[in-house]
């Protein structure tokens, strides 16, 4: 079974800085099947990126996704105060598996 | 507007069952799959299963096979998730979410694009 690993576990940054989050799959994954979500405390997750690099509706262009094979990246070009949250990558649908990575917390430095 | 509204919080004793609902509005309910995802306190997201009320397709995470029942009522635009033989490990917020792929027109996004507000299930003796 494919396992997703995210790093770092916690990222401490200041507003205006760039955030780079990593998601690694235990075996090669089609980029069509990799999604990213943001979750703020007490809220449901929000879809940010699907197909590894396509932004979901309404997502600001400071969020971007890239990668292929086993290594994927979510980048936030300049952190806004509302971007401090937990971010999850997800294997979407390959062989009806929809597993999530353990998450990366982006916290205020 | 497109939304999913979930039923209220539940408190159950170990060994009991719980049935949660997820009412969809603002879109073609039968055109999209509904997924169920849970999150234990302070933990990450865990996928339980999916239902397509349009074509009857149901899939489960192997971990929950045999303990979860998924169903849907097209007339009420509502999906249901029943979890049996509850233990304290099942204490979590349970979310329903819409798969972004439209099976009627075969287009959309490969992700969970709409989420319910979540239902807290507490299992305690």
Provide a concise account of the structure shown.
The complex is a heterodimer of chains A (109) and B (125). Chain A is mainly beta and 109 residues long.
What report would you give on this structure?
The complex is a heterodimer of chains A (109) and B (125). Chain A is mostly beta strands and 109 residues long. Chain A contains no helices and 9 strands. Chain A is globular. The model of chain A has no long low-confidence stretch (mean pLDDT 95). The mean pLDDT of chain B is 96. In chain B, 0% of the residues lie in helices and 54% in strands. Chain B has no helices and 11 strands. Chain B is mainly beta and 125 residues long. The interface between A and B is medium-sized, with 26 and 20 residues.
Q: Based on helices, strands and strand pairing, what is the structural class of chain B?
A: mainly beta
Can you tell me the residue ranges of chain B where pLDDT is under 50 for at least 5 consecutive residues? none
Radius of gyration of chain B: 14 Å
Q: In which range does the helix fraction of chain B lie?
A: under 10%
Main beta sheet of chain B, described? 7 strands, mixed
End-to-end gap of chain A: 36 Å
* Main β-sheet, spatial strand arrangement of chain A: 2-9-8-4-5-6
Structure summary, number of beta strands of chain A: 9
Strands of chain B, count:
11
What does the overall shape of chain A look like?
globular
Number of helices of chain A: 0
Q: What series of H and E elements makes up the topology of chain B?
A: EEEEEEEEEEE
Write the SSE topology:
The complex is a heterodimer of chains A (109) and B (125).
Chain A: E1 4-7, E2 10-13, E3 19-29, E4 34-39, E5 46-50, E6 54-55, E7 63-76, E8 86-91, E9 104-108
Parallel strand pairs in A: 2-9
Antiparallel strand pairs in A: 1-3, 3-7, 4-5, 4-8, 5-6, 8-9
Chain B: E1 3-6, E2 10-12, E3 18-25, E4 34-39, E5 46-51, E6 58-60, E7 68-73, E8 78-83, E9 92-102, E10 107-115, E11 119-123
Parallel strand pairs in B: 2-11
Antiparallel strand pairs in B: 1-3, 3-8, 4-5, 4-9, 5-6, 7-8, 9-10, 9-11
């Amino acid at each position: 079974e494919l396992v997703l690993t995210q790093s770092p576990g916690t990222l401490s940054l200041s507003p205006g800085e760039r955030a780079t989050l990593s998601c690694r799959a235990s075996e090669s994954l089609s980029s069509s099947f990799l999604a990213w979500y943001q979750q703020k405390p007490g809220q449901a997750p929000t879809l940010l990126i699907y197909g590894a690099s396509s932004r979901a509706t309404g997502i600001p262009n400071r969020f971007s996704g890239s990668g292929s094979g086993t290594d994927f990246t979510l980048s936030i070009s300049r952190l806004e105060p509302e971007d401090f949250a937990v971010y999850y990558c997800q294997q979407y649908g390959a062989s009806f598996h929809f597993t999530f990575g353990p998450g990366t917390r982006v916290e205020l430095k | 507007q497109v939304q999913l509204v979930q039923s209220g919080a539940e408190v159950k004793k170990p060994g009991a069952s719980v049935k949660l609902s997820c009412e969809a509005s603002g879109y073609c309910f039968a055109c999209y799959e509904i997924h169920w995802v849970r999150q234990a306190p302070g933990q990450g997201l865990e996928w339980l299963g999916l239902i397509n009320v349009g074509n009857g397709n149901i899939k489960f995470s192997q971990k929950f096979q045999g303990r979860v029942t998924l169903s849907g009522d097209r007339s009420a635009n509502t999906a249901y998730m029943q979890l049996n033989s509850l233990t304290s490990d099942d204490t979590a917020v349970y979310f329903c979410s819409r798969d972004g792929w439209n099976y009627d027109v075969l287009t959309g996004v490969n992700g969970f694009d709409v989420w319910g507000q979540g239902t807290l299930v507490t299992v305690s003796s």
